[in-house]
UniProtKB/TrEMBL annotation:
SUPFAM superfamilies: Periplasmic binding protein-like II. Residues 36-262 form the Solute-binding protein family 3/N-terminal domain. The keyword Signal applies. It comes from Metasolibacillus meyeri. InterPro entries: Solute-binding_3/MltF_N (IPR001638). The keyword Signal applies. This is Transporter substrate-binding domain-containing protein. PROSITE patterns: PROKAR_LIPOPROTEIN (PS51257). PANTHER family: L-CYSTINE-BINDING PROTEIN TCYJ, MEMBRANE-BOUND LYTIC MUREIN TRANSGLYCOSYLASE F. Keywords: Signal. Pfam families: SBP_bac_3 (PF00497). Residues 1-27 form the signal peptide.
Length: 269
């Protein structure tokens, strides 16, 4: 019924105005109005936000947001895909209302933007190399190597700090395209990247990426949605919906569907 309400509200409201309805309260503030929320996301992050073989935007973040949308009667979500490097600027300039792209908190982001309180995912980050690479066994073997990073990503911020603290002579290559990142690692133009177990498995299966994980997990980071700094009302609504979806098992089901593992226990205090 929610979808029907959303689709029908605009023409009904317009008809009422054109009919010259004398109810000033209705004309000034329709409590049944549905606010459209524009969500910035990506289309190349497998299992998170990507275009499937049928040309549909899908992935864990997308399907979870659809479930959240069903819970929230007064908002309607619309997705806009863009390069990862453009997401933060688009949110900062109010071109979008929120970001969904496997985002983790860091001081730089928290200074400018608002995160919701309830994490909706938590995934381990690892060093990833080509399957034929025997030189790199852990993060400490990246000294003197060439590492590919997504600009402004949490992995990039983490390794830039790690590199500085350990005085690594590591060349950093910032790559905005997911397929380009895979190709550069496969062809040896870069020696390592940072990624997640599910991404490695999917890339090896779907793109014959020939990747492998080395070393221990570096981070097990909570993942959140991001909002414009003052948009606490929307963030709180999303938090409430996520908690309901954790409690009713929807989050668990989606995690298993997209990642093969249930990380929901990591999301509960």
């Amino acid at each position: 019924m929610k979808r029907l309400t959303k689709w029908l509200w605009a023409p009904i409201a317009a008809a009422a105005l054109l009919a010259g309805c004398g109810n000033q309260a209705d004309a000034k503030d329709d409590k049944n109005a549905v606010q459209e929320i524009l969500i910035g996301t990506g289309n190349q992050m497998l299992n998170i936000c990507f275009i499937d073989e049928n040309g549909n935007l899908t992935g864990y973040d997308i399907e979870l947001l659809k479930a959240i949308d069903e819970k929230l009667e007064d908002v309607s979500f619309k997705f806009e895909t863009m390069d990862f490097s453009n997401l933060l600027l688009s949110l900062e300039t109010n071109k979008i209302d929120m970001i969904a792209h496997n985002m983790a908190k860091n001081p730089e982001r928290e200074e400018k933007f608002l995160f919701n309180q309830q994490p909706y995912n938590a995934v381990p980050l690892h060093v990833v190399v080509h399957e034929g690479n025997t030189e790199i066994q852990s993060i400490d073997d990246l000294n003197g190597k060439k590492v590919g990073l997504s600009p402004t990503s949490n992995a990039a911020l983490f390794f830039e700090k790690y590199k500085e603290e350990h005085n690594f002579d590591t060349e950093l290559t910032f790559i905005t395209s997911g397929p380009d990142m895979l190709n550069q690692l496969k062809t040896g133009r870069i020696d390592a990247i940072f990624s997640f177990p599910f991404s490695v498995a999917i890339n090896n299966k779907e793109a014959y990426a020939q990747q492998k994980i080395v070393g221990d997990e570096l981070l097990f980071t909570d993942i959140f949605f991001m909002f414009e700094k003052t948009n606490e009302e929307l963030a709180n609504k999303v938090d409430g919906a996520i908690k309901e979806l954790i409690e009713n098992g929807t989050v668990s089901e989606l995690l298993v569907e997209w990642f093969g593992e249930d990380y929901s226990k990591e999301l509960i205090d």
